Amino acid sequence: MAGSAIVRALKDRGAKDIITKTREELDLLDQRATENFFRANRPEVVILAAARVGGIGANMADPYGFLYENLQIQNNVINGAAANGVKKLVFLGSSCIYPRECPQPMKEEYLLTGPLEPTNEGYALAKIAGLRLVQYLSRQRGIKGLSVMPCNLYGPGDSFHPDHSHVIAALVRRFVEAKREKAPTITLWGTGSARREFLHVDDMARAVTLLMEKWDSPDIINLGSGEDISIKGLAEEIKKAVAYDGEILWDPSKPDGMPIKRLDVSKLRGLGFEPRIPLSEGIARMIDQYEKLREERQSGV
């Protein structure tokens, strides 16, 4: 999702000689294969958007896998880039790097000031290690490093898998299917009180290309909309957009995750970035996206 959006944004800016690989073409968990890729291609700029990602349930079910696999991906790519003449290295982190009880909005300097949210600690630890590697490379070897910490992303390429999707994709699938099945109720995890910040992936990609031109510092920088919404409010928005007329029930035995995550994006705004795609429009696009995927699956396309 993130990588393909960045490729679209780079092409919009006239970038040429963009080298990409699918997961089938290059397994970034394979150190030797990754090293061979860098030796053969020797790119000048590397943007690391690849990661193992998922929602609360997936993170809780396999924290070892989320930590191990993301460390492997990051180590292989960052070291391969550093050993083969890369001039600029862009690393996509996550807003989950900040402490669970972080003051809001979360400023870049709040990193490592408190314990992490337990439900996604493995993923967060990997991202913290990655951003530190990029910072150390900048200081020790003069490689220009850019570490961007996005908020919750959604959009084209997002997964609607029942076990591995992020919250917006998961809710879109649940509400569309509940409407089709004429289910009288739908039960969602937690209390709905947690608050999250969302940004369409195409806005994220525009911001990354802007930062590549204007942000010349190894310090991390937040990337988001600067606005948040409760999960309950998000569910109501999606329910309305889908036109589902059943009742939403909440299961408080399931975790809410971090109580609130809203980034301080003053540094990004100071560079001239403003999101273009409001949440309501983004939700409508996600519903269309899921409906099309569903039709393709049923038709065997």
TrEMBL record:
Keywords noted in UniProt: Isomerase, Multifunctional enzyme, NADP, Oxidoreductase
Catalysed reactions, as listed in the record: GDP-beta-L-fucose + NADP(+) = GDP-4-dehydro-alpha-D-rhamnose + NADPH + H(+)
Binding site for substrate: 174, 189, 196, 256
Taxonomic superkingdom: Bacteria
Residue ranges constituting the NAD-dependent epimerase/dehydratase domain according to the UniProt record: 1-224
A single BP term in Gene Ontology: 'de novo' GDP-L-fucose biosynthetic process
Positions bound to NADP(+): 92-95, 127, 150-153, 166
Cleavable signal peptide: none
InterPro entries named in the record: Epimerase_deHydtase, GDP_fucose/colitose_synth, NAD(P)-bd_dom_sf
Pathway where this protein functions: Nucleotide-sugar biosynthesis; GDP-L-fucose biosynthesis via de novo pathway; GDP-L-fucose from GDP-alpha-D-mannose: step 2/2
CDD domains: GDP_FS_SDR_e (cd05239)
Enzyme active site: 123
Keyword NADP in annotation: yes
Keyword Isomerase: yes
Record family assignment: Belongs to the NAD(P)-dependent epimerase/dehydratase family. Fucose synthase subfamily.
Protein name from the UniProt record: GDP-L-fucose synthase
Naturally occurring in which organism (per UniProt): Dethiosulfovibrio peptidovorans DSM 11002
Native organism taxonomy: Bacteria, Thermotogati, Synergistota, Synergistia, Synergistales
